[in-house]
Amino acid sequence: MDVEFLKYPIGKASIESDPPIERVEGCIAVIGRMPKQLMEFAKALTDEQWDTSYRQEGWTIRQVVHHLADSHMNGFNRQRLAVTSLETPKVTGYPQTLFAALPDYTSDPFLSVILLASLHEKWVSFLNGITETGWKKSYFHLDESKEYTMKESVQMYAWHCQHHMAHIRLVIDKQ
What distance in Å separates the CA atoms of residue 174 and residue 45, rounded to the nearest whole number? Predict the structure, then answer.
């Protein structure tokens, strides 16, 4: 199978700078649905599949699920900083590859599945309460040297949900 497809099974993120409200609402819905879909996938995975990579030199599904928790905790906090700060906050990334090698990435993946369910419920509540002024706020990602508006950020995290759910689906569909 094509390596580029395995890396990006739904394609690379397509982020609109000023999307219509329907797109923003759709992205919030994706973020809201993802934990339920993840739980359904998680219940279907065998022990062997949890430790199967979706591509050669890629993460295992266990690592992907723990990565989702780390990434989305960071994303939620970045967005909250953007909305509450008087000036555009500067945020950093985190060493994803190094995190994936930490001991907690070998732990029970349901810990992150449950964390994501709670986090996303809180996240959607936050996103649904953002005012028009809040949607115009942004944060500056130091590692990427890029400013993300809230509307861009919500699109990026909705894509991230779908992107990694597609990786999990690749492993499930191999059986």
Answer: 11
State how far the Cα of 95 lies from the Cα of 4, in Å rounded to an integer. Answer: 22
The C-alpha atoms of residue 143 and residue 17 are separated, in whole angstroms, by 20
CA distance 8 to 157: 15
Q: Which of 41, 54, 5, 32 is nearest to 116 (CA)?
A: 32
Whole-angstrom CA distances from 67 to 13, 139, 167 are 18, 21, 12
Domains by residue range for the chain, with CATH: 21-174 (1.20.120.450)
State phi, psi for 22 to the nearest 5 degrees: -65, -35
Reported residue count of the chain is 175
pLDDT per position as a tens digit, 46-62:
999 999 999 999 999 99
